[in-house]
Amino acid sequence: MAGHSKWANIKHKKAKEDAKRGKVFTKIIRELVSATKQGEPDPETNPRLRAAVEKALSANMTKDTIQRAIERGAGNAEGGEMDELTYEGYGVGGVAVLVETMTDNVNRTVSEVRHAFTKFDGNLGTSGSVSYLFTKRGEILFDDVSLEDEIMLVALDAGALDIENDGESLLVITEPASFGAVKDALNAAGYESSNAEVTMSPSTTALIDNIEDAEKVMKMIDMLEDLDDVQDVHTNVDFPDEILQQLS
Hints:
With about 250 residues, the chain is an alpha+beta fold. The chain folds into three domains: about 1-75, Integrase, N-terminal zinc-binding domain (Arc Repressor Mutant, subunit A); about 85-130 and about 205-245, 2-Layer Sandwich (Alpha-Beta Plaits), CATH 3.30.70.980; about 135-200, Alpha-Beta Plaits (2-Layer Sandwich), CATH 3.30.70.980. Helices cover about 45% and strands about 20% of the residues. The chain has helices at about 1-20, 25-35, 45-60, 65-75, 105-120, 150-155, 180-190, 210-225, 240-245, and strands at about 85-90, 95-105, 125, 135-140, 160-165, 170-175, 195-200, 205, 230-235, 235-240. Strands 3-1-2-9 form a four-stranded antiparallel β-sheet. A hairpin with a 5-residue loop joins strand 1 (about 85-90) and strand 2 (about 95-105).
């Protein structure tokens, strides 16, 4: 899974750049509202809300903004109901793609998502066509591999499932429900992650080893992420080092 880890680093870098431009704030607020509506307004007892709060804080959203979104979700105020739908499809080279959306107009959303796939030689699939390739889990990334033993002790004791070391970074893996507790334990022990999120992790990867196809995949992902109704995009793409260097 070394290729996936390297792709994850690019994804995290892109996310930080998007956050600086304020592109992600609307999406995060939607997730905060929805997570609160579907559970308790307390992040300590609502794992999905806790993950959304973590994402908001990592994007430098203010605590006041986060609290207003939670209060909006708890009071079911402002705006109509939003449908949460996941679309599945393939990009060039057999790259599997999951697109998580939140929308008040399903016809608009599916049309825009389909257009992004077809524009870059992909195709929108049916429900279940690629979701079986992904598992929902918490991922906490550290850049210092020399701390593996120390981080492993703290993480496993706090309930982590495993730790992966690809020689460049450490990836602590958790169940979605224990993500917050493991991250808290690592923070309390003085270990600050470079990225932490609950995501969809692929069980297999699709190697894209030519720059033309790699650029199509990246452009498709960018177009999907730029759609207002899209909350997140997950993929199993694996880029070799030489392709990563050309893309970055």
